[in-house]
Specification:
Layout: E1 4-7, E2 10-19, E3 22-30, E4 38-39, E5 45-46, H1 49-59, E6 63-67, E7 72-76, E8 84-85, E9 93-98, E10 105-107, H2 115-123, E11 127-129, H3 135-144, E12 150-152, E13 164-165, E14 171-172, E15 192-195, E16 199-202, E17 211-216
Parallel strand pairs: 12-17
Antiparallel strand pairs: 1-2, 2-3, 3-9, 4-8, 5-7, 6-7, 6-9, 10-17, 11-17, 12-15, 13-14, 15-16
Length: 219
């Protein structure tokens, strides 16, 4: 069953997804950062808003766009700043996948990137690279969507810093972080973090296949 909540320019859609035996709630938030996002390329088909969102659920897409006047629907399995334009286009509505019960987080899939690139990808849609307190929930998302790793918004300025800090500046001692074995690294350049089986430190400028885990900054 679908439900819809409209509050100003916000639109959320809820559904349940089964993946590898796990039930995962999904919602979508319309992206309204500066200007409506639009994609280059042709739409995939003529359909309704509800059917477009349902197709995204089935296809496990990361974002979807719908043009109400034409009924055009376009699904997107990847996201990079170069794949979108910021030309205002109120006739095209774009939605990004969120993961309840924390409906301000999303995973933005894209090309291979560094941790530094990941912060820019999040910023391009009005979000920040994030470090959630509920890592078990995040591991469920990672497993359900078959993701190798996720960049986290946890970093430090130098190896000598006593604390790691999240996207809000909140400090975390090593003992408060669910590190993988032999982590964190004592490499002076491994000042950023990623999640695989557990949290690992990484070089901020190393290119990997990990995806950005972002948190929207709602007004």
């Amino acid at each position: 069953m679908w439900s819809c909540q409209r509050t100003g320019v916000l639109v959320f859609v809820w559904a349940a997804v089964m993946s590898r035996g796990l039930a995962l709630d999904i919602s979508f938030r319309r992206v309204m950062h500066g200007a409506e996002l639009t994609w280059e390329g042709d739409p995939v088909m003529y359909t309704s808003w509800v059917k477009c969102s349902a197709m995204c659920i089935r296809a496990r897409c990361n974002l979807w766009s719908w043009a109400p006047a034409e009924g055009w629907c376009s699904l997107h399995s990847s996201f990079t700043p170069t794949s979108i334009t910021y030309t205002p286009n109120p006739s095209v509505h774009t939605y990004v996948t969120l993961f309840p019960p924390y409906t301000d987080y999303t995973v933005l899939l894209g090309e291979d990137m560094t941790w530094q690139n990941a912060t820019q990808v999040c910023s391009s849609v009005g979000a920040v690279l994030a470090y959630p307190s509920d890592l078990q929930w995040l591991k469920k998302i990672k497993k359900s969507f078959n993701l190798g790793g996720l960049f986290l918004g946890l970093s430090k300025n130098s190896l000598s810093d006593k604390y790691w800090r999240d996207e809000s500046g909140k400090p975390f001692p090593d003992s408060a972080i669910s590190w993988a074995k032999r982590e964190p690294s004592q490499n002076a350049e491994a000042l950023c973090t990623t999640l695989h089986a557990n949290v690992k430190s990484c070089k901020c400028d190393k290119i990997t296949t990990d995806s950005p885990f972002c948190k929207f900054q709602f007004d």
